[in-house]
Amino acid sequence: MKRGSGTSRLFRHAAGGSALLATLLGLAVPADAGAQEQAPQLTCYRMVLDSGLTNEYAATQLCRGARSTAPAQCFLRVQDEGSLTQGQAVQLCQFSTPEDDPATCYLQTRRRTFIESWRGVQLCQPPVQELLRYCPVFVQ
């Protein structure tokens, strides 16, 4: 018996026929299904730049490690309010997530107390322990 013939050839034809049948029936995977969604860091970055932030370094720092657009949304909220410098707004909002809302904390603190801006940033920014979860571990 000759190698490569027989049942293996039968399976190749069956596999090819299945793909053809799936295509004809419209069951094939769409061409763009393999394309991944845009990375949340890039979405965040574009969101702040499209909203008027001209400092690309600040946008990069803000959105580094972002898991969603929460840092951009936080940044834009506190910048609209106007009491923070750009650097303070980045410090407050960097690494924020939808679950924690440093912008709301900061804005409430400003309305209800006479706390200085820099103390409000320290009070409301995501905790260091949470930040450490998102920091890369350096392997030596």
Short characterization:
By secondary structure, the chain is mostly helical.
Question: Your description of this structure?
Answer:
The structure is a single chain. The chain has 140 residues and is mostly helical. It has a domain at 40-134. It has helices at residues 7-25, 40-50, 56-63, 70-81, 86-93, 102-112, 117-124, 128-134. The chain is globular and about 40 Å long. The protein starts with 6 loop residues before the first helix and ends in a 6-residue tail after the last helix. Mean pLDDT is 76; it is low at 7-35. Residues 1-33 form the signal peptide. Keywords: Signal.
List strands and helices in order, with pairings:
Layout: H1 7-25, H2 40-50, H3 56-63, H4 70-81, H5 86-93, H6 102-112, H7 117-124, H8 128-134
Helix pairs in contact: 2-3, 2-4, 3-5, 4-5, 4-6, 5-7, 6-7
Order of helices and strands: HHHHHHHH
What kind of sheet is the major sheet? none
- Number of strand elements: 0
Helical amount among residues, as a percent range? 55-70%
Overall shape: globular
Our estimate of the beta-strand percent is: under 5%
With helices defined by DSSP (H or I, 4 residues minimum), what is the helix count? 8
Low-pLDDT runs of 5+ residues are 7-35
Structural class comes to mainly alpha
Distance between the termini: 57 Å
Taking all residues together, what is the mean pLDDT?
76
Radius of gyration: 25 Å
Features:
8 helices; 60% helix
